């Protein structure tokens, strides 16, 4: 009885080894699962790139506003409002930061210096040339990836800076 059972079992295994029905379905399933993971990753990184371009456009929009309406006495609220209006919808992380700063430099020096004295007068460089005034608009935000595939990416910090000379 036992001998007959083992003989039947061997015959069934031989038959299954030769049978190739369903092999295409198994191979297709394996390939499609890999393609799905790759496709979702490409989609997610595409959304990341689009969001980053939106942040860059918002920073440029704030800079355009600053160049047309020069900021007076360090009041940057109108520039910040222009950046917020042009920025894409805030992500779920909710940590968007918009920074606007103004600084001056002498032509021969790379260090930042004060632009005006306490009395409000423009300061000159040691060689009697006028200091160059710059304005910087920066926007930063954490972008949460939709698909955390194999721990490759959780959140990505995005930052865009735009600097322009005012004078």
From TrEMBL:
UniProt-listed InterPro entries = TadE-like_dom
**Record's keyword annotation contains Transmembrane helix:** yes
Occurrences of domain TadE-like (ranges): 22-62
Keywords attached to this entry: Membrane, Transmembrane, Transmembrane helix
Pfam families this protein is in? TadE (PF07811)
What transmembrane ranges does the database entry give? 21-43
Q: Which domain of life is it from?
A: Bacteria
Q: What is this protein called?
A: Pilus assembly protein
